[in-house]
Amino acid sequence: MSSFYFASCGFFLLLMMLILAMDCSHASSARHVLDSREEVRLPAPKGNLTISVKESFLNKAMLLLLPWLNVFLRGLKLPPHEQGNLYIDEVNFTEIGVGSVFVAMESPNRLNVSLYDLKVAIPETLFSVWVGLFWCNGILRFSVKILSIKVSLMVLLQPNGKVGLKNLGVDILWLKLFVEHSFTGGFCSEMEKVIEALFGDLDKIIEMMAMKKVPEMIGSMLEEKSDAFFNSLPFHVVDGPNVSEKRLEIAMNSDSRSEKSEEVSSLLLPVISSPWMPSNLDSPPWRRNLEIFFTETAFNEILLYLNRSFHLNQTVAFPSKYNSSLIKEMFPELYKLCPNCSFAALFSPTVPPRAIFRPYRTVIFDILNGFVGLRMVSAAGQQVPVLETLVNYTGGFSDLRVTLLHSIYFRLTEANVTLKVLKTSVGPIDEKALNEKVRFLLKWVFLPMFNVNFKGIPLPPQIAFPFLDVSPQGIVAAFDLSIL
Q1: Pick from 232, 266, 300: which residue ends a domain?
Q2: DSSP states of 182-231 as a string?
């Protein structure tokens, strides 16, 4: 149950991170040459979070996500089922390999998802049959080949204002469904012919039951898991969902509208846009296959959601060559606590971070009491704290954009940071001196060096025609997928 939820949640969250990273600006003259589509302005947003997805985007994305989908489906389970005198235990799938996926949109508000060329492996499954006075227990063995599964879904609005999916039908085209049973008890094995005389061919009965019940179970599971996922999101629908023949559009607001972010504590340097970089204003905002708009309020709700689900907690293991032997000469007593141990850095916000959208394509993050720690980890898993701190940090990114070289470019703003030492194994630490040195290094060494040397992060080749506009009113992100 949880695998579907977390996989869906995970897919959504990964997609959002990709969109946030995408800042763009391409010269309009280049756009006219590269893409001959009619220029149609992006629609005005109707909510704090507005999403528009084209059918072709989903189908291209499915090609990229097939390996991940196959890993996720490997843990699929069907719940126990009882019909008449027959009881079948939970059915586990050790393998469900999908060859291809196709998504079709129909008006009004209908999604058809088809899975083709499925490879299915099911381990032995327990079953029981009531023979009048007692239960006979046994084992089922399945041999299954499926050509396709087609799921028809209605995208609708739940009574609580959340998005929902209603199963309209699941069609399975079986190439092969063979069931073989054996009883585990000696008495029941000897009574096999009597049981078949009473109930008929158990194998055929179970095969027919599976053909009828499995589609119903899949449809019910899809409804249950999708509703649970959408209900967990901190947004409710204000317009839509609207599904046409080629595009799905939905506008949402935050469940609990947070107040406008307070002014950040640090005094930031004026943001100067680089004149040699192309501007977003030069890019014609035609319709893309995926379009997302979110306000500062919606973005902070997403941060709150990620924090509550512990997705912002990170542990980063250092490469093995950076082990405690490097500090043996400088900190011999510390080394003795964990000889030749690896290092790991821990990051955990104790308070949800907040973002502030500013002019000049700037996003500032205000982090209060963020936990940052460095630990030594032995081969047995024992952890020895080296330094653990609470950090107040204000800083972010300015001039967010995508260059003509198709790379993500940004500048780091001046940062204001304060550290409080919680635990240390390196001896007494002067917090005042530590803070002064950290601020000095950030202001005069690390940030200037980064901004001078950073040339951008190349976008993957599958991302085509990205567009993103960052302003105090919100972020508009859009792009196409290109499968090479």
Answers
A1: 232
A2: EESSHHHHHTHHHHHHHH--HHHHHHHHHHHHHHHHHHHHHHHHHHHHHH
Is the domain of 183 the same as that of 81? yes
Do residues 105 and 180 both lie within one domain? yes
Angstrom distance (rounded) from CA 463 to CA 23: 12
**Do 137 and 194 belong together in one domain?**
yes
Domain containing residue 169: CATH number: 3.15.10
d(CA 270, CA 444): 16
User: What is the C-alpha separation between 338 and 318, in angstroms, rounded?
Assistant: 15
Cα separation, 35 vs 39, whole angstroms: 10
Is 343 within a domain? no
Please indicate, yes or no, if residue 297 is contained in any of the structural domains: yes
- In terms of residue numbers, what domain contains 363? 257-323+349-371+381-481
Provide the residue type at 230 as one letter: F
Please name the residues in contact with 112: beta carbons below 8 A apart, sequence gap of 6 or more: 103, 104, 105, 106, 150, 151, 152, 153
Q: Which residues of 273-291 are buried (b: 16+ CB within 10 A; e: fewer)?
A: eeeeebebeebebbbbbbb
Q: Among 128, 160, 153, 125, which residue's Cα sits nearest to residue 221? A: 153
Stretch 331-357: mean pLDDT, rounded? Answer: 90
pLDDT digits (tens, 9 = 90+) for 32-67: 333 333 334 455 566 788 888 888 888 888 888 888
Last residue of a domain, one of 176, 197, 232: 232
Angle (CA) 302-4-219 rounded to 5° is 120
pLDDT digits (tens, 9 = 90+) for 427-470: 888 889 989 998 999 899 999 999 999 988 888 888 888 877 88
